[in-house]
Amino acid sequence: MLSLLLNAWSGNKTTCHLMLTDDSTITYDIPESVHTTILSHHPKNGLQKLMLLPFNAYKIAKYAHENDIDTIVSFLYRPNYSAVMSRLFGFKGKVIINIRSTTSRYLQEGLLGKVNLFLIRKLFNKADLIISNSMGVKHDLETLMPVKTRHIAIPNPVDLATIDLLKHDTRDIAFIPQKDTRYIISVGRLIPLKRHKDLIDAFASIHTKLPNTRLLLLGDGILKEALVSHAKASGIDNKIDFLGNVDNPFYYLHRSDLFVMTSEIEGFPNVLVEAMACGKAVISSNCKSGPAEILDNGKYGLLYEVGDVKTLSGHIEALMQDDETRKRYEKLAKERVREYDIYKVLSQFEKEVFNEET
Could you read off the pLDDT of 297-338 as tens digits, one per residue? Predict the structure, then answer.
């Protein structure tokens, strides 16, 4: 999201500055004209990062004063805290904070979660505007605190034109899908919250009904070895390809027959929209938050309740065996994804940030 905004705004009569909370590697393209500053150069644990908030806020206020910055747009919780706190050190401009995931997750994170919730309740109403990336994320915050600041939802954008090019790009492609094989694909980190085991279990229960069909898993993570072992124990390790992290997931999405997302929780699942941009029929868990909103409660793709492997396997079997229904959902996906086109979403951001219609 941040990369898309910077690429759209830099050089367009707007001077953009990027302030990073640490020196983690930037994996997105940042325009050369963007001035980049790093607030902290040493890795720290969660509590230490929170203790740095006032120091970062001071640095932000000082930098903004020195560079005539009149608007701060921050993303993620800790940068949001520091952005709002910069006013304690003299920043007089507009502060717009962005929420990209459900705030209620902090209810399950012990002492650190309680500290975060305290800061959220104390600071967020001091911003000029709160932007959540889905109505579900917006509602989630509003159930945890009385939101007095203006609070709106603007979804993450998808660059349809770029995806349309990349899905045909064969450079650096190590795995070539076979023409006589059908593929079910899932993309995401191999971590507990993504619940890939559910997908493996669903596929294991119906794979004999789906000849010449394989499961593609894109992404890496702490559960990879466990998932590989589970696939072997389920007797389908010879029908699953663990491809790890890839530079161009759109190539694989385009060449697959069905996309499945099994997450336990999301903020706004970009990959779901990206799969739809590749013209794929989609199945998603009805998790908090985003899928039901994106799929309009099942109009544009199939939903199932988190962990309901039986319903998931039924959905997969139905779409893989019924070409007509699957193609109908593919057509609907292409229609729906236009709502998230980068130019449409950016116009909403620009209206709020620059106070002008675009």
Answer: 999 999 999 999 999 999 999 999 999 999 999 999 999 999
Q: What would the mean pLDDT of 61-79 be, rounded to a whole number?
A: 95
- Where exactly does CATH 3.40.50.2000 map onto the chain? 2-156+341-354, 160-340
Q: What's this model's pTM, rounded to 2 decimal places?
A: 0.88
Question: Which H, E and C letters describe 5-70, residue by residue?
Answer: HHHHHCCCCCCCEEEECCCCCCCCCCCCCCEEEECCCCCCCHHHHHHCHHHHHHHHHHHHHHCCCC
- pLDDT tens digits, one per residue of 85-114: 999 999 999 999 999 999 999 999 999 999
φ, ψ (nearest 5 deg) of residue 173: -95, 115
Q: Which residue, among 322, 320, 218, has the nearest Cα to 261 in the 3D structure?
A: 218
Q: What is the dihedral of CA 156, 159, 163, 164, to 10 degrees?
A: 130
What is the CATH code for 160-340? 3.40.50.2000
pLDDT of residue 288: 87
